[in-house]
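Annex B. Sample input.
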Amino acid sequence: MRIALKLRHQTWVPSFVTNFFGKELGGGRKKEEELHGKAVKVLDLLHHAAELGHTDALYALSQLHLFPPNQWFPPEPGLSYEELSSHASITGNASSQALLGFFHATGYKDIVPIDQAKAQLYLTFAGHSGHKGAQMAMGYRYWSGIGVVEDCMTALSWYEDAAEQVMAKFMSGPPGGRTLPLVPAKLSDLEGGVFGPGASVASTGLNAARPVIKTANARAAGEKWDDLLEYYSYNADRGEVDFAYRLGKIFYQGSIYGSTGGIASGGDGASRVVRDFHTARHYFLRIARQVWQRDPPNPRQYQTPKEKNPPSAGYAALAAGYLGRMFLRGEGVKQDAAMAKMWFERGAEYGEKESHNGLGIIWRDGLVDGKKDLKKALTYFTAAAAQDHAEAQVHLGKHHFMRNELKQASVYFEAAVRSGSPFEAYYYLADIQSSIARNPATPAEIAGSSCAIAVSFNKLVAERGLWNDNLLEEAEIAWNSGTDRGKELAMLKWWVAAERGFETAQNNLAFVLDQDKSILRFTRFAPQSPSNDTARLALTQWARSAAQRNIDALVKLGDYYYHGLGVADEPKTTRYEKAARYYQSAADTHMSALAMWNLGWMYENGIGMPRDFHLAKRHYDLALETNTEAYVPVMLSLIKLHAKSLWHTILGGEDNLNLWTFEDAEGGASHFLPGTLRLRC
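Annex B, continued. Sample output.
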């Protein structure tokens, strides 16, 4: 039996055997029966409480039926809709109304027909009751014209309400604000982009250096973060200070890759690791002790050395900045502003920017003995901002913003955005642009531009501040479970988030539903015919993602119209023309070599646009200029194009299909005469 229990962990053993071992020999079947019994009991108790008029039990039932937490609770979206309807009618609860709006907006599982008017009604009530998700959904609907006429100012009002909630939550945290959630990853990015590495805009050019693409490359190479951490630990234990510092950063931010902009900017969600403040402090303290062997009995008695040009502290100064921040915020240690100030002063001796920023917060807010000194605070913030520290630039911008010096404030906020600020700077810039848009004296064209900027920035703030109801993170966990039930739950959560305007959720949902991945689609080996309903849903999500500046999604839209996926009822001519327009829109960004190649092929074959070999060659050339990885397909296409043109010219053609001309000695053009061969484009 011991041997059998060990065999169940071997990958070469058939799954039906390991399942048997797990259930029969490991006691799994008995445990399953116990858990199933507990789930039935929970549902029975909640049903009984709901029948007795307990509205919280009614809402809990609706959540269990719509978002079952595990396999013991079966999904029952139809029951969930009925329970949400009852709960909303009895209590007017905003959360129930928001989910009812989702059902009517999407027609999920055909429980109710799609009715955008009813969706609008439920979401409006929920939004006015303060439900942030409903406010975001309303803002997105007015911004995109879903069920309503596009109205930027109305969209701005809804997104402002959501962003204000998020900012209030952010400011309720420790000094410096709450820790930002990690940036969620797109499923397609983890595979090198929608079209794979090399062909997708998401993984070519400057985008190839994005943390999520580095993570995708690491996964493709079979690397695991546990192996990386073990390697770093091995080198750190040998006294390699740079590896110890990297480990401290990784465990502090809970991610292998941090965002630009400083400590406060968060990290990448694709390279997530378990966050461990105690381990981070261990490594930072080990580094710092190489310069500061001991601490004074009273940190308030610490005095900065008078030496004007102290020797370089290297990583110790950087570690001091992190240690000061941890004491300032109570992360892994007891919150102690005096200790924080001591560590910040140590780092500031060596000009470390995080330490300058931390001292600015302490003096501005009077966190040590209530002593405030705005002049000192501004001096420290300026020193950090001069080193492109995003958070310090935000603090300087806020200082001018509070004094109504909006022009100077904008300068600092814009500098913070360039330095990598992912949150606060956008909030205040949105407020400034909103005031411009609402000013009656502002010209209409400027007001419209300011409104669009304000909506975009408020939307970004509302979507980043997900400390509660983080649908993207919950969906990621469900998807990574690997079970069919988990994947179905993940898609539901992405769908809810997509209706609230999250481009990541729209991309994920479209990518999962995408039926145009197989290169065999148009051969006799093609898989079964795609579902037009599923393709239509994917097309909708691709369109919404493309409208939020996802270039690969824009190319996908062209593919769907070209292949007739989700638009089978439209005539081919119309579909090809629309496909060409989408490819052209993507090509105009000068980032998608694939879109340019597609356009070249359509010009070459006269599909969706007039046949023109000159424009075909031009787009093939542009594809290669945009992405050198397109060398092989572009060269093959050019060879074929010139062969076609040569045959056309031999037959006497002289129109836009003739790429071949000869220049005679007089400089005139003639065909097939001695002279210098020139390819014309």
